[in-house]
Amino acid sequence: MTVEIPEDLRYTEDHEWLRLEGEEGIVGITAYAAGELGDVVFVELPAVGTALEKSQSFGVIESVKTASDLYSPLAGEVVAVNERLAEHPELVNDDPYGEGWMVRLKLADPSAVDDLQAAADYSRLVEAG
Amino acid sequence: MAYSPHTPADRGRMREALGIDTVDALFDDIPARVRANGLDLPEPLSELEVARQLQGLAERNRTGVTSFLGAGAYRHHIPAAVDAVLSRGEFYTAYTPYQPEISQGTLQTIYEFQSLIAELTGLDVVSASHYDGAAAMAEAALMTVRATRRNRVLASRAIHRHFLDTARTYFAGGEMTLEELPTAADGTTDLGALERELASSDEPVAGVLMGQPNAFGLLEPMAEAARQAHDAGALFVAVVEPVSLAVLAPPAEYGADICVGEGQPLGIGLQYGGPYLGLLAARPDLVRQVPGRLVGRTTDVEGRRAYVMTLRAREQDIRRDKAASNICTNQALCALAATVYLATLGPHGLRDVAALGAARARELEQALAAIGVERVHSMAYLNEFAIRVPDAQAVHARLLERGVLAGLPLARWYPEDEQLRDALLVCATEVTSAVDIGHFAEALREELP
Amino acid sequence: MTAVGPAAARPGDPAAEEVGEPGAVAKGAEQDVWAALGRRYAVGPSLQPTLDELSRPGRSSHKVPHAPPDALAGVPAEHRRREPLALPELSEPDVIRHFVNLSQLNYSVDGGFYPLGSCTMKFNPKVNEWAARLPGFAALHPLAPDALAQGTLELMWELERWLAEISGMAAVTLQPAAGAHGELTGILMIRAYHHARGDTDRREVIVPDTSHGTNPATASMAGFRTVTVRSAADGGVDLEALKAALGPRTAAVMLTNPSTLGLFETRIEGLLDAVHEAGALAYMDGANMNAVLGKFRPGQAGFDVMHFNTHKTFSTPHGGGGPGAGPVAVGPALVPFLPGPRVVREEDRSLRLERPGERPHSIGRVRSYQGSVGVLVRAYAYLLAHGGSGLVQVSEDAVLAANYLRRRVGEAYELPYEQACKHEFVASARQLKARSGVRMLDVAKRLIDKGFHPPTIYFPLIVDEGMLVEPTETEPLETLDAFAEALLEIAAEAEADPELLRQAPHEAPVRRLDEATAARQPDLRWRPMTGAQTPCPD
After folding, report:
1. Which residue among B309, B341, B373 closes a domain?
2. Is the separation of the CB atoms in A64 and A7 below 8 Å?
């Protein structure tokens, strides 16, 4: 089974991805994670303005049978959340790297993105698990 | 052997398949020092002997007294249809409906229960049940803390004493506090005190809890209290008696965010305290904070309407240490009793039950006034009120010897309250007869100085 | 997402002609359902309208007399309902037929085998039902003076003695309404115990990774942080991992024995020693007591507190989800903290409830009244029927049947643990999934077509594609054999025709449900009824 893992993103061990846009990072969960969860029914997101540390939980994603915490890949402040997920949680399954994005962070240290996994490393993680 | 079908031949076959001589081999892994050698308990009994023993115990209870005791558990006529349905093995020996394809009976009745309680309360999200009214109230208090992220809960002292005690026990485990609001001299909650507590800004309030009717049987100014709570950003929790909702304003109408109560009056026998039925209903936007099971309607792959437990991620088996509550086994069969009760009585029947209780209570009040026994309070009540009787506890005991259970001496619940020292809390329901009332008044008249 | 009512229009409404909204059934299918539902009452399993759909204006049953017109004269208008109460209007025949037909859609113990691991779905004896309905028990008010309640108080007193003997503990409370309620009671007592000794820093509760979800949920409710320790390869708690997690912040360790894998904790002595050396207390989740009655007494072995599930071990019926009861037994150290009021025996042999303040260290009440007495009457009747020797036989038969079934199921499914099981065992479909793509979920759904309720699946969490099977002692051998054969057939079907399993069940009243929509667009109540259709007689 091939799981999509875009080259231009960075990844965490907890199956989040981050897309760097200048000083900001957009965060979501990977196609692999969405597949493991099954049909997503609800995503609990933080309030705009919330300050997050690296690896701090920022919300919860629920499917029919499970619930998982969401962890921030890097430290930053939440400047936007994807409000469409409230009415359309299935976007996380259908388009995890696009319309299924979750939060946009103003990063405390954009250069720290290099500490995150590249696509190739994450790909090995997925194959091992 | 009481209920096992296994014969010695069956056991032999199973042992043979396992290659063991005795069943002891299967218990060999229990370390010797912790192994028990049987139980020091009586010998087995036949069904005849079991029945005889239980009959004997049941007969040692005295349930034939003329009772005016309510105080949170009420005698009502339970239509025979309720037990006819509850006795069906398909309902009472079914498991929790985790496999919805073969549990549609249970699931649909829970959906109907949720809908009926939603009609009664006006609050659309109804939990499939809690252990009893006290546990439901404790859970609701915890809900207000979760939903507002504040730690302070205010509850009127005129809520059932045991509900308050239970909530205190539940609150012992955390950072939350539960404070009692005083009552005014008229027996209703002191709204001035509520206002003062809500105004103190260093400890914002998560929830305000009040009973309707309250523990003295009196009707409270719920709308005003709800308004005050909301102005301070707190949630308002109504603690209600469900039969009264046939005639009293539903909690949603006066601004309750959450409503809880004891569902025992809805077709469940007194049973010395349980199993009962904890009711909990909430506004739809609080659904993710609601503890307990929820059943939803959906469709199957062939488009049939079907029911399933839903929003399960709130529950303990999925959320574990982050679950809204640890509740697993609930009071499902008691909820079924309530469903059959409400279906059988219908809107007019339930209204008659509530209104007859009110009518009998007024007759009781008049009969007692005629012998010089007055109410403690003067505010309006539905079917329960407190009377003042000198030396109440002693009179209560003597009335019991005459076969009258004259309610509850309130000094038991409020030992420091001068006003209630000589108070008896009495109630009437649709099963209270004019003969009962006459008997009570006559006996009391003879016991008074 | 705020809507909790039906998105689809009710059949017969003009709006039923509209194109379906999200979650609505396709128009044609809904009308087919309505045709099947509304035109006749079918005998046998059939879908039913809801009570509001059966309602007809003017239908009623005369259950109580009519109230006089001025009945509510004393209730001020501001407290009265403005809109009349809207509930379904039905006659008694409607009601009975509705619920009887719904009952036919249910699987139940009275009707079939439920090999649900961790649930102990044994037969529910009928004399217990008779006993609980005796008017002397059923009509007794919870606040009745003690003199009126001597029968029930005697039953409670005796039941406490029996449970103390079975558990090897000093005393028992009958208050908790369920196992989870008992867990909360026990953990709150442990908290009170530590606080009474001035030890307020113990904020953690340790549970194994195989624990039932109620254990960590209970710890959280009681204000503790949960620390999870892994199991060893043999399925038991890893003693070294436990020792590493134990410390001055540990209040309690919650263990299940036999474990949720159905295996006896052979290192139990070492585990309990480690717990006590760290100054913590040991809680036992008694869900699996059906395996060890008379063979292992937790109090005697060193546990400080445990709960029973009467709806598991002692046959009280599951009722579609409850009610049960969760009595808690404690060793001497925790007796002062038991919830109150307890039953007390006076010198003249009469019984009474404790008075407020009589036992100052009690944690207080955990519910409105003394216990789910109706359930406890059933449990007591069960114990009387079995006696001590009968209870030992129960465990021996339960364990023998489980091992027998395990051997048979092992012919086609992986058995992850070699140790002989107790009353339940785990099997895995991991290899089956690798060979055929079929998952344990599909095996479970196919069992429904074979006439069986599926076992517990995906619990405990540490078993991949796992099922937990518990036959209990009340199933005849032929049922055990039939169940094993059904599982073997399914394993063969998985290889030959995996799609058949993935689409299962085929034979149930409804097939696989759209649970995603149920969670995304919750429909938790019927559309609000808009007022009674007929005026009140007065």
Report:
1. B341
2. no
SS3 of A21-70: the string is ECCEEEEEECHHHHHHHCCEEEEECCCCCCEECCCCEEEEEEECCCEEEE
> How does pLDDT run across B410-438, given as a tens digit for each residue?
999 999 999 999 999 999 999 999 999 99
In the CATH scheme, what is the homologous superfamily, with its name and number, of domain C387-520? Aspartate Aminotransferase, domain 1 (3.90.1150.10)
Cis ω for the linkage preceding A6 (within 30 of 0): no
Low-confidence ranges of chain C (pLDDT < 70): 1-46, 531-538
C78 touches chain A (CB under 8 A): no
By C-alpha distance, the chain C residue nearest B8 is C397
**What does pLDDT average to over chain A?**
92
pLDDT of residue C200: 93
What is the rounded distance in angstroms from the CA atom of residue C532 to the CA atom of residue C89?
8
pLDDT digits (tens, 9 = 90+) for B243-259: 999 999 999 999 999 99
Q: Pick from B299, B317, B341: which residue ends a domain?
A: B341
Q: Which residues contact B259 (CB under 8 A, 6 or more apart)?
A: B121, B123, B237, B238, B239, B240, B251, B252, B279, B280, B281, B282
Give the CA angle between residues B93, B99, B102 to the nearest 5°: 65
Which residues of A are less than 8 Å from B322 in CB distance?
Answer: 67
Mean pLDDT, all residues of chain B: 96
**DSSP state, B244?**
G
Bond preceding residue C341 cis, omega within 30 of 0:
yes
Quick one: pLDDT at residue C480? 97
**Domain span including residue A28:** 10-128
Give the pLDDT score at C531: 59
Percent of chain B whose pLDDT exceeds 90: 91
> Which residues share a beta bridge with B180?
B155
Write the residue in C119, C136, C366 that is nearest to B95 by C-beta: C119
pTM of the model: 0.94
Strands C281-285, C305-307: pairing kind: parallel
What is the ipTM, given to two decimal places?
0.97
- A62 reaches C (C-beta below 8 A): yes
Q: Could you list the residue range(s) of the whole structural domain that residue B443 is in?
A: 66-75+346-447
What angle in degrees, to the nearest 10, is found between the helix axes of B47-60 and C373-409?
150
**Closest C-alpha among B314, B310, B347 to residue B114:** B310
Rounded Cα gap, residues A44 and B325, in angstroms: 18
pLDDT (0 to 100) of residue C285: 96
| Chain A / chain C CB contacts < 8 angstroms | 19
Closest residue of C to A62, CA-based? C519
Spatial CA neighbour of B281 closest among B338, B348, B350, B202? B338
CATH of the domain spanning C150-384, picked from 3.30.70.20, 3.40.640.10, 3.40.630.30, 3.90.1570.10: 3.40.640.10
The Cα B180–Cα C430 span in angstroms is 56
Residue A28 lies in a domain: yes
Report the pLDDT averaged over residues B309-318: 84
What is the CA angle B46-B49-B54, rounded to 5?
125
Q: Which of B298, B308, B318 to mutate to test the interface with A (most CBs of A within 10 A)?
A: B318
B60·C526 Cβ contact <8 A: no
**Does B100 fall in a domain?**
yes
Nearest Cα to B148, choosing from B204, B110, B70, B107? B204
